[in-house]
Design brief:
The chain is mainly α. Helices cover 63% and strands 4% of the residues.
């Protein structure tokens, strides 16, 4: 075998060294991550941002080349996840399918969801349906990775095959496994959303900002995932750069919230802010009402809080125990029933949640109910609840 042929096999046309190949790997995989989070997720699935047609097609081509994913199918499966979150119909919920199944077999769940064509038609509306989509990207989805394998082999030789294998596994692992799995199983929560979503880290840069999954579930249509001053969303940074280059147009971001001082009675501005930030209101209730009351209960009992009420049961207080097993839910109910003050706080939380989540009520009726709730809370004699109601009345939206 000639030296020239051996050189082509071991290094391809470019003949890059190990560190250069690592740089190529990171560059290619991050472009794929950005294509998923910016185009498929924030633009197509949730309409939070719109991209210049030329850039949008670059994203589409790259996704065809490196993942073989079809835009309509990905969007439909993701929208269904939000619509049916944590139920038996959720395509990839660790609550119903187990963390092991979602983490290690996320690709199988994705393929299973692809087969439900009625769901694809229902949830996949509004995605590209042009000639190249109909004649290439959809009917020949698997051709993209084959072309990529050929390109990698020519450019990088045998190491290019290894590069290709890692590229093929990148999205299945980080998106289907880590985000869909761990993002509903482990991490911290800014918002008490009606699911188990979590933020994996405050700094979303490795998976394009998708690490901030709880923030996303609280505000699905927001193009920006970072919601706290200490959080970072590299996907949002990319959007702002593309916006400066006139290649992107931001359509929606989560509205910021402020608290006005000395508001005597909840008004229309209060209600508007609460409806936009209902998950924040529930989070504030947990932190500023439940936790002080639980600490007082522990102090009176002369016990540490974790022994008085284990963490998993404390979490159940803020979501009606919906994610607890039946025996744990019964244990929590019995514990609450023995403590009148905690029982009162649970009842007030339930009433507020029902008020904010109710559908079909006109604004005037809902505002009247909110005013009554605040008045009764301030007359409850429970200091933490009184302070919460006083603060709640001042909620307002500010420019995002």
């Amino acid at each position: 075998m000639s030296d020239a042929l051996m050189s082509l096999l071991t290094g391809g046309v470019l003949g890059l060294g190990g560190w250069a190949m690592l740089a190529v790997l990171l560059f290619f995989t991050q472009i794929t991550i950005f294509s998923v989070t910016l185009y498929l997720h924030r633009s197509q699935a949730h309409r939070g941002v719109d991209f210049h047609p030329a850039l949008a097609h670059v994203f589409r081509f790259w996704l065809w080349l490196t993942t073989s994913m079809i835009t309509r199918e990905w969007v439909a499966i993701h929208r269904k996840h939000h619509a049916k979150v944590e139920t038996e119909d959720d395509p990839h919920s660790p609550v119903t399918r187990g963390i092991g199944k979602v983490f290690w077999h996320g690709v199988e769940l994705y393929r299973e969801a692809r087969g439900m064509r009625a769901d694809i038609e229902q949830y996949g509306r509004g995605t590209p349906d042009d000639a190249i989509e109909r004649h290439l990207y959809t009917p020949h989805a698997t051709l993209g990775p084959v072309v990529l394998l050929a390109i990698n082999s020519v450019l990088f030789g045998l190491p290019g095959v290894a590069l290709w294998a890692i590229q093929m596994a990148w999205i299945p692992f980080w998106a289907a496994g880590v985000v869909n799995g761990l993002g509903h199983w482990w991490g911290y929560r800014n918002y008490e959303s009606a699911d188990t979503s979590t933020n994996l880290t405050p700094w979303g840069f490795w998976i394009g900002g998708e690490e901030l999954h709880n923030n996303h579930h609280a505000f699905p249509s927001s193009a920006r995932f970072a919601m706290r001053r200490w959080e970072f969303d590299i996907g949002w940074s990319a959007i702002r750069l593309l916006q400066a280059l006139r290649l992107a147009r931001v359509l929606r971001v989560a509205p910021a919230m402020d608290v006005r001082p000395n508001i005597a009675v909840p008004d229309a501005e209060t209600l508007k802010a609460l409806l936009s930030h209902r998950f924040q209101a529930m989070t504030d209730y947990q932190r500023n009402v439940f936790m002080p009351a639980l600490r007082e209960e522990a102090a009176q009992a002369g016990a540490k809080l974790r022994r008085l009420l284990p963490r998993r049961l404390r979490r159940g207080l803020v979501n009606d125990g919906r994610w607890l097993k039946p025996d744990s839910r019964a244990q929590l109910s019995a514990w609450v029933a023995q403590r009148p003050r905690i029982r009162t706080l649970v009842e007030y939380r339930g009433r507020l949640a029902a008020l904010l989540e109710a559908r079909g009520h006109d604004a005037a009726e809902r505002l009247h109910q909110l005013q009554a709730w605040c008045r009764e809370a301030e007359e409850s004699g429970i200091a933490a609840l009184q302070a919460y109601a006083a603060r709640l009345k001042g909620y307002s939206l500010v420019g995002a």
